[in-house]
UniProtKB/TrEMBL annotation:
Residues 346-378 have a biased composition (Basic and acidic residues). It comes from the Eukaryota. This is NHR domain-containing protein. Gene3D superfamilies: 2.60.120.920. It holds the Pfam family Neuralized. Residues 15-77, 158-305 form the NHR domain. Residues 346-388 are annotated as: Disordered.
Length: 409
């Protein structure tokens, strides 16, 4: 007897309450969105800003940063999060994308008052001071590199006290960047994806004034730990300043960048431990789950950067006892995509020829064989077969003009 897919109430499958601090979930946990809160990318000047002195901060790459001052010695800062909200004064925000964003910092006296002027493409902002202050830099996200310039050697380097996500690029401590460009931005499904099960997401970039951001992505990842176990073994993926000596990292399967981010993403886990993925953008492929054990399922992880994802569908087989030779069941409400039809090259003539060999039996090894094209794109090999399980779960679909999807030559 042929096993048909069973559609779960999608409310049973949603995002876990274990998620990164730079992620926001909807009330029903069906939608996860990137929402920056903290990066740990804090740096200070090594010396207080001297009267009548000039500094220049060059920002290159792509990212967002705040520049300002702190009114206490950075060496006395023990809580960076608290200092960010209580001890610093932000003078300007710099947004850089593949160009130089320079900030000139001038310590001066105006109308008998000491002040610091910050000159950037945003204009000039002047901050009055009445005590010693240090330059403050907070890189929010991105691959931005900050380089400090000064007329005097002692003023042209960053302080040895930094946030947990900052690294220096040279021995003189003149240049810094984020260690992790998009920290603590992961979300996981609340249940493992088990063999024979499929899940569908709707993914899209978060627009700003109806425009896509210059950079955004969704990283698809897997691990055989459940979300709570992953959080305990790799806390940094969830909390920026939570670290362990030897973290257990999750595996990246595919990265969907700006031009491939909007659309529907379908995932299906086979009984042989292969994860198939198909996105409306045309990216599709397979990933062999080289994990210790996939029989109990795998955790699906999404790393979001200026993007969001919603759980829209979930299917599973009612029974594992399937007649692999029966290719007739296809979800009637969906059609095979043009991309897959073009690659499979299925014709009615081929089907008639294949139907004459009705005694041909299929086995669990009849899954798609895939050929790697690159790390980002995979395509079907010239000779491939489709398991009926994939068809039943809606990953690979029946053309209405053809009666069955069996094999391509």
């Amino acid at each position: 007897m042929l096993t048909k897919p069973h559609s779960n109430n999608k409310m049973d499958v949603h995002f876990s309450h274990h998620y990164g601090e730079n992620i926001e979930l909807s009330e029903e946990k069906q939608k996860a969105s990137w929402n920056h809160k903290y990066s740990g990318g804090i740096a200070f000047s090594s010396q207080p800003l001297r009267p009548n002195s000039k500094l220049k901060l060059d920002l290159t790459g792509t990212g967002h940063a705040y520049v300002g001052i702190i009114k206490r010695d950075p060496a006395s800062v023990t809580n960076m999060r608290k200092a960010l909200t209580s001890d610093v004064i932000v003078a300007t925000e710099v947004k850089v994308h593949k160009r130089l964003g320079a900030v000139n910092i001038v310590s001066d006296t105006k109308d008998g008052k000491d002040c610091i002027s910050f000159e950037s493409y945003n204009g000039t902002k002047t901050v009055d001071i009445n005590s010693e202050v240090w330059l403050f830099l907070y890189i929010k996200f991105g691959d931005m590199i900050a380089v400090l310039h000064s007329e005097t050697i002692q003023d042209r380097c960053f302080h040895h006290v930094t946030g947990c996500n900052i690294r220096c690029l040279d021995e003189d401590r003149r240049s810094v960047k984020l260690l992790v460009e998009n920290p603590a931005a992961v979300c996981c499904l609340n249940k493992k994806l088990k063999p024979g099960h499929s899940v569908t997401f709707e993914t899209k970039a978060i627009t700003e004034n109806r425009n896509k951001p210059s950079r955004c992505h969704i990283k698809l990842g897997i691990i055989n730990l459940d979300p709570s176990e992953l959080k305990s073994r790799d806390p940094e993926s969830f909390q920026v300043d939570s670290k362990v000596a030897c973290p257990t990292r999750w595996n990246i399967v595919q990265i969907f960048s700006k031009e491939n981010i909007d659309g529907e993403l379908k995932l299906y886990l086979t009984h042989t431990g292969e994860l198939y993925f198909s996105h409306d953008s045309g990216i599709e492929g397979t990933h062999k789950c080289h994990l210790n054990d996939t029989s109990s399922g795998i955790s699906i992880i999404l790393d979001l950067f200026r993007a969001e994802a919603s759980v829209t569908d979930y299917h599973h087989e009612e029974s594992d006892e399937c007649e692999e030779k029966d290719y007739d069941y296809v979800r009637p409400e969906v059609e095979i995509s043009e991309t897959i039809k073009r690659k499979l090259r299925i014709s009615d003539k081929q089907h008639e020829k294949e139907s004459s060999s009705s005694d041909r039996s299929s086995s669990d090894s009849d899954y798609l064989e895939m050929k790697d094209v690159s790390d980002s794109h995979k395509t079907f090999s010239p000779n491939c077969k489709i398991s009926p399980r994939l068809t039943r779960c809606g990953m690979y679909r029946k053309d209405q003009s053809s009666s069955n999807v069996q094999e391509c030559k």
